[in-house]
Amino acid sequence: MSDHYHHGNLRQALIDAGIKIINESGEAGLSLRKVASACEVSHAAPYAHFRDKEALIGAMKASVTDRFMEELNDATKDQPDTECALVAMGRRYVSFFIRHPDYFRFLFSSQNLIAHLQTDRQYPDDYPPFTLLKETYLKYLKEKKIKKSKKEQEIEILQLWASAHGLASIACMSGVSVSFDWETEIEGEVLLR
Amino acid sequence: MSDHYHHGNLRQALIDAGIKIINESGEAGLSLRKVASACEVSHAAPYAHFRDKEALIGAMKASVTDRFMEELNDATKDQPDTECALVAMGRRYVSFFIRHPDYFRFLFSSQNLIAHLQTDRQYPDDYPPFTLLKETYLKYLKEKKIKKSKKEQEIEILQLWASAHGLASIACMSGVSVSFDWETEIEGEVLLR
DNA sequence: ACACAAATCTTTACATTGTCAAGATGTGTT
DNA sequence: AACACATCTTGACAATGTAAAGATTTGTGT
């Protein structure tokens, strides 16, 4: 294996280059050929690794989602109890996208949100960040010994997610910075202030 | 003025044709040339009415937003009091986008959310649906004689909006239909079930 | 009614882009 | 060494956004 870039990890290089472009010029500035030339390969080289542009974008989204998940997991570390973890996760959820508005637009934009999920999966139930939120919430109920019906649980999870996601949406779609704070209460109220 | 299509209202025809394409093939299938040929004009004809593709898209978004506003306004008609109006509006907010998921993706997708707003305006404060929600909420406070600080009011408005918008987002981004119900309580809890 | 200016539309042209096909090059395996 | 395979390049093509130049229609003032 030569130590030249293109042997062994072009696939990952393309993903990284694509994400860099997103950061600099948004999804509008993303073209297969630019990504290729950023990696110093010919314009058709990506086709050895991705079926088409959609596939590249899918891999990029998966990669960004991984980074997002790392942050969410990180937010729950060193929290005294699960309630704090929930709150911290909500805060981080919004703050991540405030720091990376281009990621928000990229992930939740355009036609193919679910491109990086298997076709038999459904959003948001099999979307990792949602799953993490759900798990943490259920752990929280167990820890506090709170009994709720399945239906009620689903509703409150959607509530939590919708609040965080909706707020992130507002923050990312506006130029304005949105100050926020997140608290959860037992009976299912969600406060963002 | 001949009664041929292209004299007098090509501008509106282009907007309508564009929206029709969005409904059929999503934003991916939208090209200036297709819009032009749908109106039976040459591919460069749109440039007499729109500076570029972005401008057309902006006008299309404004048009879709108008339809959305009509529905929101309609939802508040014939409601006994402002609280009911608020609830009805929230329901309609989500239901509109459940019925028109392509509109959601179109409006809140891609790079240029704010394309159809003046540059000196800010999202969501000058986004008509948000303004309407805000006004209705303030009217509700007044009607119920509820006193709240400006800050608290802003928080709760954001809360309302984030819940509705986040839920619409979930519903539109997933293939799954999301059943929901919307209730507001005085102390700022938002329930969607 | 006429002339002229502005708006509107067409034609032509060009650069960018996604994708395909055919071939070259390198890698690993037997 | 030989062969299969993955990877990369080159060349081509159609779709697209956009600019330039010209044609056509519309409106306005005289």
CATH topology of the largest domain in chain A: Tetracycline Repressor, domain 2
Biggest interface, chains and residue tallies: A-B, 39 and 41 residues
Number of strands of chain A: 2
**Quaternary form:** homodimer
Helix proportion range of chain A: 55-70%
Total number of helices of chain A: 7
Features:
193 residues; mainly alpha; Arc Repressor Mutant, subunit A; Tetracycline Repressor, domain 2; 7 helices; 2 strands; elongated; disordered C terminus
Secondary structure layout:
The structure is a homodimer of 193-residue chains.
Chain A: H1 10-25, H2 32-38, H3 53-76, H4 82-99, H5 101-107, H6 128-143, H7 150-173, E1 182-184, E2 190-192
Antiparallel strand pairs in A: 1-2
Chain A binds a DNA duplex (30 and 30 nucleotides) through residues 1-2, 6-7, 10, 31-34, 41-45, 47-49, 52-53.
Question: What can you see in these coordinates?
Answer:
- Two copies of one chain form a homodimer.
- Chain A has 193 residues and is mainly alpha-helical.
- Chain A has two domains: 10-50, Homeodomain-like (Arc Repressor Mutant, subunit A, Orthogonal Bundle), CATH 1.10.10.60; 61-187, Orthogonal Bundle (Tetracycline Repressor, domain 2), CATH 1.10.357.10.
- Chain A has seven helices and two strands.
- Chain A has helices at 10-25, 32-38, 53-76, 82-99, 101-107, 128-143, 150-173; strands at residues 182-184, 190-192.
- In chain A, a hairpin with a 5-residue loop joins strand 1 (182-184) and strand 2.
- In chain A, helix 3 packs across helix 4 and helix 6 (128-143) crosses helix 7 (150-173).
- The interface between A and B is large, with 39 and 41 residues.
- Chain A binds a DNA duplex (30 and 30 nucleotides) through helix 2.
